[in-house]
Structures are given as structure tokens and as C-alpha cells.
Amino acid sequence: MTVNNDKVLNFIFHILIAIQLIAVAILYANVNFPDPPQQKISSLTGLPVWIAASPGFTAINETVGLIEYVAAFLTGALATYCVYIKLKNRRPANTNPIVSNPDEISPVDGQDTTEEIVWTKMLFDTIITGYIIVTFIALITISIFEAGKLWSAFGIYHNVLELCLAAALLQNGTGTFNYIMGLITTVVYSISAVAITSQLDWYWDATFFKFQGLILDFLLPVLFIRVALQTHRQRQSESQPLLGGSSVNTSPLAPQSQLNCLVIAATVHLLGNLSNVLGNGQTIPAIIFISSYFIAFPMYTIYVHQAVKTRTKYALPDTSFYHFVLLILWAASASAITVLLSFYHV
Asked: How far is CA 106 from CA 110, 116, 238, 259, 312, in A?
């Protein structure tokens, strides 16, 4: 039944991608790109920023500014707490039950499993801690410099850590990601994104930066949901009663509540970004965007808190290179649709 369900979902996913690609073509062919408004000049740097120089946008910026400072303080406090609990709960190397080779199959209950099991401690909670830290830096710098070409050099690392999270969740089956390739990818990605942003003219620079960031925002909730479902399946498989006996679950797999934290955090962050992009700088969408940080990053912190203390594992679903390309294509087309729709409300 599970195999049949997977085939149905796979078919639906292919249809969805085809529909999204058609939607991108239709939206692009019919959108009327307006002339970009005059940019506001930063009072601190004297450089143009990604805000229109109009009284309305100035008022919006002042309204949202206080919430940005509060969000920055919150993420800074959360980052400090994550670092603290990781240092406090750090174990000696010889007693830390970490799988040394993520590609090895881990035995469960004395039998080999058919799916790869990876320790949560395998840099994953460290990546999330780093993600919270760079988000704090991005919020601080955007409050100082305001969003623009200069800020993109800092803001890109928020996206880079999202890329690291995605890479950690795509290790099983692609054969694409390892630590060396991950480092090369993140360096090339960050330099390329900032270089392209710096060379584009106003409105397209901000548009491109939103587009590349939304790709990862769309991708992460889906990847977290896939891991949550695979871990749930693995847990159910391990809990089946033997020889008619009662079911006893002794699995070290991560509890569903931990994985739900990741799903909720990534989903809320995506919804906040969608509100901001589609809202085109309006007050309410901008407030929704900033307010999403008050939900998403505490949820990430809860996950780090639980993961560091329990040292539980999660199951990675198999991702072939073909399905990896499909996931990227889906996320990129979804991001393109969102950005194009934003031009229909300018």
C-alpha cells in the first residue's frame, strides 16, 4: 500500500511541476513590468536601498522598524541559548554515539534496516544553531543599513545556511552531497548570488534576491515533511509485534514532536516571506513577515534543545538525482510564480 501511495504522490508531483511551469510562462507573457520607483537613499551609508522614496514607504519602514529590532533581539537571545545548551551538553568524543560514516546502514534491534538512519547530532542541530545566528546578523544589519546591495552581502548567509540544511536532508541517495561538495557549493552560491545582485539594476536586484531566497524557503518545508514521514514509517515498522506478541517501541528515532517543530518553523517562515513578497511593501504584509520570526525561530530553538539532550536519530528518505532535480524545479517555479504575481499588484 505504501509503494502504491508513493507512486500516486510521485505522479501528482510531476503534474504539479508541469502546471507550475505553464503558469510561469503564462504569467511572464502577460505581466506588465512597471518602471521602478525612485529609490530611497540610506541616511547612514548614502547608498540607495530597496525601498521606494515615497512618504508611504517611509511610514511603513518606521512602523516595521521597531518590530525588526525586537525580532533581532529575540533571534540573538535564541542563538545565545542554543550555543549555551550545546556547550553545556557536549560529551567527550569517546562517549558520543554518533555514526562516523553517514553512508553506513545502522542496525536496529539486531537487524539491518533497509533505510539509512542518521544521527541528529550529525552537525544538523549545529547547522540550525548557525542558521539562527546568521539570521540574527541579517536582522541586525538590515536594521542598520536597510535592505539593499550592501546588506545582501550579510543577508545571503541566511540563505546559505538554508542551503546547508537542505544539503543535510538530501544526502541519502543523491550521491551529490558530502562535506567537501557542501563547502564548495555554499561558497560558490554565496559569491554568485551577491555578485549577480550587485550587477543588476534597481528593482531587478531586489527581485533576484527575493527569487533565490524563496527557492530555499519553498524547499525546506517539503524536505522536513519528507523526513518526518519517513521517520514515522520507520518507527511504525520497528514497532510491529513479533510472533503475535505486544508491540514495544524501543526505537532511538526522533519523536514526532521534534520533527513537527522543524515542519512548523519552515512553514511559518515560508508563509511570512510569501506575505512580504506578494504584499509589495505594504504595512500589514511586512508586519506578518517580521512577526513570522517570533514563531519560526523559537520552534527551531525548541528542536535544538530537544535534539542536543536526547541524541535521537531520524530517517532520511532516498532521493535520487532525478528527484533532486524535480524538487529544485518545483521550488524554483513556485518562487518564480510568487515573484511574478507580485508585479500584478504594483
From this structure: 10, 7, 13, 20, 13
- Asked if residues 71 and 293 have their Cβ atoms less than 8 Å apart, the reply is yes
**Kindly report the CA angle at 89 between 137 and 100, in degrees rounded to 5?**
90
Rounded to whole angstroms, the Cα distance separating 233 from 228 reads: 9
Cβ–Cβ under 8 Å, residues 124 and 168: yes
Could you tell me where the beta strands, DSSP code E, fall in the chain? 39-41, 48-52, 107-108, 111-112, 117-119, 313-315
Tell me the CB-side half-sphere exposure of residue 289, using CA atoms within 13 A: 23
Q: Are 27 and 337 in contact (CB under 8 A)?
A: yes
Of 236, 234, 294, residue with least CA distance to 264 = 294
What per-residue confidence (pLDDT) applies to 186?
Answer: 83
CA distance readout (Å), 342 to 36, 58, 108, 280, 338: 13, 20, 49, 7, 6
The span from the first CA to the last CA of the chain, in angstroms, equals 48
Other Cβ atoms less than 10 A from the Cβ of 6: the count is 11
Strand partners for 41: 48
Joined grid coordinates for residue 106 = 545502522
Cβ-contact 327, 216 below 8 angstroms = no
233, with CB counted inside 10 A (0-12, 13-18, 19+), is middle
List, for residues 212-226, the tens digit of each pLDDT value.
999 999 999 999 999
DSSP summary character for residue 256: H
Domains and CATH numbers, the chain: 60-95+114-238+252-343 (1.20.1070)
CA distance 133 to 88: 18
3-state secondary structure of 39: strand
Closest CA to 133 of 81, 168, 89, 85: 81
What are the backbone angles phi and psi of residue 301, rounded to the nearest 5°?
-65, -40
pLDDT tens figures, 246-297 = 434 445 777 888 889 999 999 999 999 999 999 876 778 888 999 999 999 9
State the angle between helix axes of 204-238 and 256-279 in degrees (0 to 180), rounded to the nearest 10.
160
